[in-house]
Specification:
This protein has 183 residues and is of the alpha+beta class. It is 34% helix and 26% strand. It has 2 domains: 6-82, Alpha-Beta Plaits (2-Layer Sandwich); 87-181, Alpha-Beta Plaits (2-Layer Sandwich), CATH 3.30.70. It contains 7 helices and 8 strands. Helix 3 packs antiparallel against helix 7.
């Protein structure tokens, strides 16, 4: 048995997006290892890190990582930490049937820092239509849009502003790959 019995997936918010908060994944790996985390693996350039830890408290671990990252990088980063089971549960609750409908729609999950209040949820749902479909289950926003709306002409929505909570989004395929890598 390992000294680090808990396997986690950390999702860093807003790194390597549009040339802002740029950090190499190899540097992130080294930082996580220097903080005593083991079996550290990164996946693509958007701040997905899998690792083992002795700490069984995800919220405590997320705050620890935020403090360490800010100290190392010089700017604050929001960190969301999940177990494989939590990502599997989030994937299982996706109402948009992304496996079957992948050719026709693009689907993402936005992991939220808190459950948005009912008025904020209603404000988001009021923006639903031909272009976007939404569903919020606990602290996950699921959204899908037809592939015909991909690209620079797609209307963008500042989900964090509308919902009044912080979040970080991942595509359906990335979420599934993170689940696979965490096994």
């Amino acid at each position: 048995m390992t000294d680090h019995p808990y396997r986690y997936i950390a999702l860093l918010r807003a790194i390597n997006v549009g040339g802002h908060s740029v950090i190499r994944m190899s540097d992130l790996r080294e930082l996580f290892e220097s903080w005593g985390l083991t079996e550290v693996v990164t996946y693509i350039q958007s701040g997905n890190i899998l690792f083992n830890s002795k700490d069984g408290d995800r919220e405590h671990l997320a705050r620890f990582l935020e403090k360490k990252l800010e100290s190392a990088l010089g700017y604050p980063l929001r960190v969301f930490v999940f177990s494989r089971k939590q990502l599997e549960e989030a994937a299982a609750q996706n109402p948009f049937d992304p496996e079957r409908r992948d050719k026709e729609q693009h689907c993402q999950l936005m992991f939220l820092s808190a459950d948005p209040d009912s008025s904020r949820r209603a404000a988001l749902m009021a923006q639903e239509g031909e272009e976007y479909r939404f569903s919020i289950k606990e602290k996950v926003l699921y959204f899908a849009y037809p592939r015909e709306f991909e690209g620079p002409n797609r209307r963008t929505i500042n989900f964090e502003k509308v919902l009044g909570v912080a979040g970080t989004a991942r595509t359906w395929k990335v979420v599934n790959k993170l689940i696979e890598l965490s096994r």
